[in-house]
Amino acid sequence: KAGVTQTPRYLIKTRGQQVTLSCSPISGHRSVSWYQQTPGQGLQFLFEYFSETQRNKGNFPGRFSGRQFSNSRSEMNVSTLELGDSALYLCASSLERLGGGRPETQYFGPGTRLLVL
Amino acid sequence: AQSVTQPDIHITVSEGASLELRCNYSYGATPYLFWYVQSPGQGLQLLLKYFSGDTLVQGIKGFEAEFKRSQSSFNLRKPSVHWSDAAEYFCAVGPTGGGSYIPTFGRGTSLIVHP
């Protein structure tokens, strides 16, 4: 079974631009979560999508948004990029939604490395 | 709020030596616990997980971890380290619901392996 895939793997943007990242979960997985990883802040939860609805959200500004399609694929969008948005963006999928009362294991993709100049 | 602490930022071991990476958590109930490994420029790979039952869990690549409720710990061990184990290791607490919906990750421990 194929793992979580993310595209693109690398991206260079300039301040003020916007960017869209894509994530395809493991087949059959219905939940997709996004994380930002930086050397200074570590791994930070951005949001989770399940059944095309955002279920949980971390402490990030509204410039960070996402969506999920009916086939569970997800996209994350960052508008008005800032230098501090440079990071590795990781996508993780799980069978069911997080915190639903049953243990869920998240499987991560390779990440998209975003550099904002 | 739940939290995860990995007290060691870096650990250096010699190839063939044993390894123990520490993880302490703060959580109101029995947590779901995970260890992940990340090689440079890569995503996180699941090493092992604990949900319930036997407190000693076996994972991939010869790793094991022991859940100790009394110490709020979930330390990762390996009896003999290989050079390919050099990577970043993350401990995580998974949400169990009941007000907890977001996973929490430790800051990671960087493992350096000397030949």
Give a description of the structure.
- The complex is a heterodimer of chains A (117) and B (115).
- Chain A is mainly beta.
- Chain A is built from no helices and eleven strands.
- In chain A, a hairpin with a 2-residue loop joins strand 5 and strand 6 (53-57).
- The N and C termini of chain A lie far apart (37 Å).
- Chain B is an all-beta fold and 115 residues long.
- Chain B is built from no helices and twelve strands.
- The relative contact order of chain B is 0.33.
- The interface between A and B is medium-sized, with 26 and 26 residues.
- Coarse morphology of chain A: globular
Q: Biggest β-sheet of chain B: count, sense, barrel?
A: 6 strands, mixed
Number of separate strands of chain A = 11
Mean of pLDDT of chain A: 94
Number of strands of chain B: 12
Q: What fraction, in percent, of the residue positions of chain A are helical?
A: under 10%
How many DSSP helices of chain B? Answer: 0
Please mark out the parts of chain A with pLDDT under 50 across 5 or more consecutive residues, or reply none.
none
